[in-house]
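ERR on first pass: missing label on line 2. Operator R.T. fixed the label and resubmitted. Corrected input:
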Amino acid sequence: MKFILNGTEVEYTGALNARLLDVLRDEYRLTGVKCGCREGECGSCSVIMDGILTNSCLVAMGRAEGSTIVTIEGYSNTERFRALDKAYADVSAVQCGFCIPGMILASECILAKNPHPTEAEIRVGISGNLCRCTGYNAIVHAIDIAAKEGSGLW
Amino acid sequence: MDKISESITRIDHTPKITGAAMYVADYPTVGVLFGKLLYSSKPRARLLDVIVPELPEGYLVVDRNDVPGENSVHIVLDDTPVFACETVEYIGEPILMVVGPDEKEVLRIVNAIKIVYEELPAILSMRESDVVFFNYEFGKGELDKSFSEADKIYEEEFRTGRQEHAYLETQGMIAEPHDGRMTVHGSIQCPYYIQRAVAKALGYDAGSVQIRQDVTGGAFGGKEAFPSILACQTAVAAHKAGRPVRVVFDREEDMEYTSKRHPSLCTYRVAVKDGMVTAMDIDVIYDAGAYTTLTPVVLQRGIICSTGVYNIVNLHVHGRAVKTNTVPSGAFRGFGGPQTFFAIEMMMQHIAKDMGIDSITFKQKHLAVLGDQTSTGGRYHFPVPIPVMIEEVDKVCDFRRKYKEYSKPQTGRYLRGIGMSLYFHGAGFTGSGERDFIKAVARIHKTADGTVHILTANTDMGQGLKTTFTKIIAKELDLPYNRIIIENPDTDFVPDSGPTVASRSLMIVGELLRRAAARLSVEWKDGEDQIIEEHFQEPDFLVPFSLEDFHGDAYPTYAWAVAAVETEVDTVTGLSNVLGTYGSFDVGTPIDMNIVVGQMEGGLMQGIGYAFMEQISADAKGRIRNNKLSDYIIPTSMDVPNLEVIIHVEKYPLGPYGAKGAGELAVVGVPAAYVEAMEMALGTKIDHIPFTAEDTMKVLQEVVNK
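pass 2 clean. output:
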């Protein structure tokens, strides 16, 4: 089966019941996709699948056929990433960093849907991504700053 | 704001945000064997037999018979076995490890192994335990006289529950044998703790064991002692296999079998005369679990904190840590402080309520001030800024007005409450630890090209230490940040500057680095290689601490906090909606404002979780029933949208540029503020945390039944 991974079409010949999370990490060495719980609860393994923020631990490879998947490794080459990167840096929103690749992709999905979200909308948008370090304020602020300073990118 | 407080982009920002940072699970697994532990399923039992199926080629079972050195993990008392001996003492005690090239096959073998147990009676509750691991007692003044002359004596018991660290990255370790040495790297707080533990288990000299920290995805105390145990097991397996072995926990085993915050049972007897507390007789019990690990030090801090921020002249404190057949309790942000701070703050609130005065006025009348004695007969050598901080919090959340308003009888579906808690965190290792055990050494190495390398054993696990250390060197030497290098610690290259615990790293090691850099700036020679080392010196103003007498300055100084929580209870669902959490925090000079604010916000949130969301429940055999993030609930971005932090600065002259310890402070006193708010909303008295939605429903039901 084939799918598009970070802009490149790839052919996958492994088990169709393997988890997308494991395949991304083990076969494609995309270790920015983090494993935190394997039950879709923490959001550390978030990827963007056909434009939707998705827990890759809950996706069987069979479902990925023909899909377009973006991980942090692909997303970090984009202009939009640079706006988020700067905003996260400005407020020091990255602490241990384990949730951050997923948070960045969640940030992208919030802004792609709604370029000028309210604080409440930002909080809903990252509510599937757990962070144990920050208390979330800095991350919420960072997304708000990115929306303002990166205006026009989304 | 001091120049040093102005925030910079964190040194670890880019590798983490791009996904490039290498956490232990991210290392390639080619040529590496997978290890999986097999755990006891009984709370207490004799191990009669282990029946292992025929193993495919390349697969090994590793147990206590394979430990080349001593089968005990060096922590404090070294009673934790690397692998279980004749008996198992809790559900989750590691019995053996299966190691092999294919992870699924390893798991299949683990599941196929049969353990034959002879079950023994287990003690699961600390009330029933008669095995006392640690027993401390201290006091001062005239206790009996104060109680006999009291107008009224209050007595109450308070309970706190287990709390899981729930760092997002689970525990993980890789051990690589090579050239007669063992290299271990993983998710860790304290490289030298692990080095000593692994050397003992392998029977190696310490220099033959190299420990490297990988990028660490949160720890909060959970990676202080536990990694020593996992490192010993992994290293023993690698030693037997003669190949690298990797063990990365899944979430379930991490939540069920690694350390938690100690459950506690505190009983306070308080004498009151003429409206003032005159004496306290305090009994503290901490549930250590099955092995001692870090419990003695946790209990010490707990009982030292048992009088809170108050000046209690006539005092008796008795602290015990007891054994139960449950997973060993361990270090968790606050380290024994949150339990007794909950008890003392609730006790003061309850007395105030009984006397019909507001709790803040009552508490303020008892506040310790500069020069007062601490609980252990040391001194508060520096100003206590709590009164000003109360005003700061009042201003930001209109505390006093709301306190008055919500104290009146309420009707309707939604009931509101607000509460405030006053607390401190003693900065640095407890007692004489820095002087007698740790003896920190920090080093900087300037290479001929003018680059300065920071060499300490302290780890950045997310709290921002790489950034704050770098800022100190940059300021002292007036260097740009890109001329300063700080790597993750590697015991082959860094001196032992002590563990990354106790909110000590910046205050103690940061100051050693500052002094080293100050010397280098005087001695700087262009084009030359220079190494400068600094050693810890005990401050000369301290009343020396003696553990035998439990007397003296347990800490050189304190970080102070005032926290308030405002909540609204839905009487239909029992759910509590936290309307706001506010705090003023004094950690001395912030070495980076964003980093300090981030520590305070994160700590406040963990305190909110501890107060009412995070509950570990076990079945009748002691098996933890909620071992997943879907049934152990930590706060999400929706839970406390309104989180406000004020930074109050009282400089500490012996910390770098006036900095004190910061990492642990915020979490310590949050539950008492939350519970006071809930008591107000529900019009009831509460004596335990977590105070869950189910607890709220019980209270509401009682009202209906009346």
